[in-house]
Design goal:
With 126 residues, the protein is mainly α. Helix content is 75%, strand content 3%. The longest helix is centred in the C-terminal third of the chain and has 25 residues, at 101-125.
């Protein structure tokens, strides 16, 4: 398999697309996404913008990810195992095809976000 340095929005789009294929095939995580996402095209475009804003300073994302996860958590409680599995799949998706500073930044930011998101949700559900 050919590894590629993560450099631009096209690479981020590729990672997001590959990742959500993994998510939708995962028996544990897919129910969360399938129950909450009405328009997959819109969700994917939001994720392209979200990660592009963080990784390449594209500044295209608008939204509130914490609020979205709070809403989901009301319908389907999110547990630490869900965040851990999400993170594992995310990192594996990146590592299958990409390397470099931006790839590492994407994994690091995902770790931080998963931890922050879970701690905020855990604080609300207790």
């Amino acid at each position: 398999r050919k590894m590629k340095e993560l450099k631009n929005k096209d690479d981020i789009i590729d990672i997001v697309n590959l990742f959500y294929i993994e998510i939708r095939e995962n028996d544990i995580l897919s129910p969360f996404f399938d129950s909450f996402i009405e328009d997959w095209g819109l969700h994917l475009r939001k994720m392209y913008d979200f990660w592009s804003t963080i990784i390449i300073n594209d500044e295209t994302y608008t939204g509130n990810p914490v609020k979205a996860h709070f809403e989901l958590n009301k319908e389907k409680p999110l547990k630490k195992e869900h965040f851990d599995l999400w993170l594992e799949l995310f990192e594996k998706t990146i590592d299958k095809k990409y390397f470099g500073e931006k790839a590492e930044k994407m994994k690091t930011r995902a770790k931080v976000m998963a931890k922050v998101m879970f701690s905020k949700i855990e604080g609300v559900t207790i």
